[in-house]
Amino acid sequence: MNLKELFEKKKVLITCHKNADIDAAASSAALAYALKSIASKLVLVFPEGLSKLSKKYYEELKIDLEYQKDIETLDTDFDYSILLDTNSMLQLSENVRNIIEKTPLIIIDHHIWKKKFPENIKLSVIKRNLLSTSAIVYNILKSNNIKIPSNILTFILAGILYDTKRLALVNPQVLRIVADIIEEGADYAKALKLMKHEMDVSERIARLKASMRLKVYRVGDWLIAVTRVDAFEASVARLILEMGAHVVFVVSQPKKPNIRVIARSTPDFYFKTKISLGADIMTEIGKTIKGEGGGHDTAGGAQGAGDPEEVKILCIKTLVKKLLGREVSPNIIELK
After folding, report:
1. What is the CATH number of the domain that holds 145?
2. What is the per-residue pLDDT for 73?
């Protein structure tokens, strides 16, 4: 992917999924850094802003790249849109989606696209084996001989650490990339330190409420949990895995009828069952709730519409059927 050949004197939009996590934020920022001196106009959009943790990295690493939380005017004309770390158009704001649909599109991602690429796709760079979009963007920048400053390198490293669960999920290729990034000036200690997160009282309350609503199901030696909470879903999912679940679904409905589901599993669950939450479970749930879903092997999400209690049961039924090859009533396997 020759950046100068593609983007010199072009107007470029760079964007990713809503509430950008560290991988989405780091990969988007790194690519924006590379293109700011090549493109005639560059607009970086993080739909609905950065996640709390991503914002912390952005500020602490002094990432000097302006960004918008949405497209400010639909009259903006772009030569290219670049979509990173996003395998569903439902993960974008409506304004961003409208711009992307009428602009030549480039996709850079490590997720599986279950649906066909949009008709306006011009180029796709999908590298599932690199485990993060940050690693893909790093390789693109290196192949274009772009000198990357240490703060951007540290941000890229953080994106890789985040999506590989601090290298718990890793392969030799990714380890070599991590070593190269550190050799070039990334601050490994800082990348790890900033990942530590202090909870405020709202997050603590969300975790406690989710624990009170928790239901647990047993299939063989696997423990599957499901709960409902309308904020801090990722934090809740982490807590429930730490409590002992192998898989957790967190259902939220901040505004009816829209519904969102996130799912997380332990690496051990994926290694032993080969069930990918993103590819095998959340895509199916997304279709059933008349929306879309996808994600990683051990982390996925879906958006659509429905009743939260019915969607909770749907999550359990979908996973159990995949595990056993047949349908089983959740009442039979629920721990009480």
Report:
1. 3.90.1640.10
2. 67
52-60 vs 22-35: helix crossing angle, rounded to 10: 40
The answer on pLDDT for 60 being more than 70 is yes
Whole-angstrom CA distances from 295 to 13, 177, 253 are: 23, 22, 20
CB-based contacts of 314: which residues, under 8 Å, 6+ apart?
A: 285, 288, 289, 306
Q: Which of 193, 225, 243 delimits the end of a domain?
A: 193
Contact 79, 100 (CB under 8 A): no
Domain that includes residue 238, residue range: 201-333
Total domains in the fold of the chain? 2
The CATH number for 231's domain is 3.10.310.40
Domain match, 169 and 288 both: no
Please give the C-alpha separations between residue 143 and each of 1, 2, 9, 34, 137, in angstroms, as whole numbers: 8, 8, 20, 12, 10
Residue 42, strand partner residues = 12
Question: 166-193, pLDDT tens digit by residue?
Answer: 998 899 999 999 999 999 999 999 999 9
What pLDDT is attached to residue 219? 97
Strand partners, 15: 45, 83
What mean pLDDT comes out for the span 43-54?
A: 94
Residues 186 and 206 in one domain: no
pLDDT digit string (tens) for 64-102? 999 999 987 666 789 999 999 998 787 888 889 889 998
Q: Which of 193, 228, 252 is the last residue of a domain?
A: 193
Alpha carbons within 13 angstroms on the beta-carbon side of residue 287 total: 9
Q: What distance in Å separates the CA atoms of residue 161 and residue 165, rounded to the nearest whole number?
A: 6
pLDDT digits (tens, 9 = 90+) for 23-40: 999 999 999 999 999 999
pLDDT value for 114? 65
Record the tokens describing residue 36, joined without a space.
């700011």
